């Protein structure tokens, strides 16, 4: 279903302003946004790749606005797509260097979106796919204040040895809850990455749940979408409609 996030870096001039992100968005179905979900797409895709997930989640999250920004750089391997950072697969440190470089750009976007919607960090959730999950798991726990939740599809935690930096806490002093969803048959980022990421997060006292999608490769199935939506509803304190 949603692929294009499996798998060099243009270096901006010194002191150059961070590029402004933009992308498709959905207003709250109810007309008044009480929460904000930010989708972070995978390598070689763009914001359109995930915004349709918001349309499906609107049924259970009617007071939630959704935005899916295009990553800041053109993708080196897919000229029509975007990337949060370049991937050559030759440098073992490039993921860590990449998430660190892209973090201020995403942080600035999140701050601007929350300010525009007049919402606190506790009303924010990050939802990533593949490389977008790497960004969500890096940026979310390092925010000044914890987001309500982080959902990561088909990704991996980058730099677990640096999790001492992950000091974001809610007003109640809690780290952001995390849900990891992965396809059992993922050949791009093997499913073992999900289990290792969950274990590393737990060691840092960041609660992480996981859902395994049987027979699914590097993509998202209906079961994964259902679990993700319900996880967000719980984190936002939204009562699910009765069937």
Describe this structure in words.
It is a single chain. The chain has 243 residues and is of the alpha/beta class. It has a single domain, classed as 3-Layer(aba) Sandwich (Rossmann fold). Helix content is 29%, strand content 16%. It contains five helices and nine strands; from the N terminus they run E-E-H-E-E-E-H-E-H-E-E-H-E-H. It has a seven-stranded mixed sheet, sandwiched between helices. Helix 2 (94-117) packs across helix 3 (131-139). The longest helix is centred in the middle third of the chain and has 24 residues, at 94-117. The two termini are 26 Å apart. The model is unreliable at 1-17 (pLDDT under 50).
Name its key features.
single chain; 243 residues; 7-stranded mixed beta sheet; 16% strand; disordered N terminus
